[in-house]
């Protein structure tokens, strides 16, 4: 239906690139729904131009310059700035029903069936399953609901400092009222929850339809060598499943970076795609060298697509550096 849409939010350049990958993943899996991106005023013109190539509608949302009740609410609760921006999705009243998806999600198969669900449908949060995770949820745009949410924010704030706390306290019967509004975990598979119950991931992970890169470390926090299929990073720990990271970076490097290059032209920009320094060694020598040098490799195998990779890790200046080399 033309009056249904997938909606995301990008408040800065990094999340804008996440939104681009999300939009491309929805397109690649043949969604028939409209795609909408809400963007903050600090997202650059080149990034907005790329978003307009991918999404049907790109709307700039500036709460501080909105001149409406959101502005007044923002003055009372400046700590909830991003939350107020996200709540703008309820003002998209030219759509009858939408699915909101955080920009750090990636679609792995067609999910148009989510729009058969009712407001507010969402998957349990892995940290507290009686709360829903607000990274993916079904909602019905309504100016009345929007006004009530703003009032709720002003009066009660957020128990977690973000939109998830606001939405769970507003839609406070989600846990017990209607099981049909509980989305299966495969529609919002938390990348950091995989390792807390690995047998379940091995059993059901192949059915995942949406992966959510929860946590401080996002896909764009890493660098990627498209030729070597190598992901590297200088973060304290690797919190995402390597094959999902590879999915994200492969789509980003092949379908998004060329669009960014078109828009930036001669202007320099950091794509995150780098070429790892090559060594003239066969694979067997490579394994030997790294095992006797600073890196220590372990071969891992995942049931998902039976992919295999090498994982390397070393500590330098108090920071753990690592890389995944996909075979």
TrEMBL record:
One GO-annotated biological process of the protein: glycogen biosynthetic process
UniProt KW keywords: Cytoplasm, Glycogen biosynthesis, Glycoprotein, Manganese, Metal-binding, Transferase
UniProt-listed SUPFAM superfamilies: Nucleotide-diphospho-sugar transferases (SSF53448)
Single GO MF descriptor: glycogenin glucosyltransferase activity
Catalytic activity as recorded in UniProt: L-tyrosyl-[glycogenin] + UDP-alpha-D-glucose = alpha-D-glucosyl-L-tyrosyl-[glycogenin] + UDP + H(+); [1,4-alpha-D-glucosyl](n)-L-tyrosyl-[glycogenin] + UDP-alpha-D-glucose = [1,4-alpha-D-glucosyl](n+1)-L-tyrosyl-[glycogenin] + UDP + H(+)
Cofactor list: Mn(2+)
Annotated signal peptide: none
Entries under InterPro entries matching the protein: Glyco_trans_8 (IPR002495), GNT1/Glycosyltrans_8 (IPR050587), Nucleotide-diphossugar_trans (IPR029044)
Subcellular location(s) per record: Cytoplasm
Annotated pathway: Glycan biosynthesis; glycogen biosynthesis
Cellular component, GO, one term: cytoplasm
First-level EC class: transferase
Assigned EC number: 2.4.1.186
Pfam families: Glyco_transf_8
Its biological purpose: Glycogenin participates in the glycogen biosynthetic process along with glycogen synthase and glycogen branching enzyme. It catalyzes the formation of a short alpha (1,4)-glucosyl chain covalently attached via a glucose 1-O-tyrosyl linkage to internal tyrosine residues and these chains act as primers for the elongation reaction catalyzed by glycogen synthase. Self-glucosylating initiator of glycogen synthesis. It catalyzes the formation of a short alpha (1,4)-glucosyl chain covalently attached via a glucose 1-O-tyrosyl linkage to internal tyrosine residues and these chains act as primers for the elongation reaction catalyzed by glycogen synthase.
Family: Belongs to the glycosyltransferase 8 family. Glycogenin subfamily.
PANTHER family named in the record: GLYCOGENIN SUBFAMILY MEMBER
Protein's name in the database: glycogenin glucosyltransferase
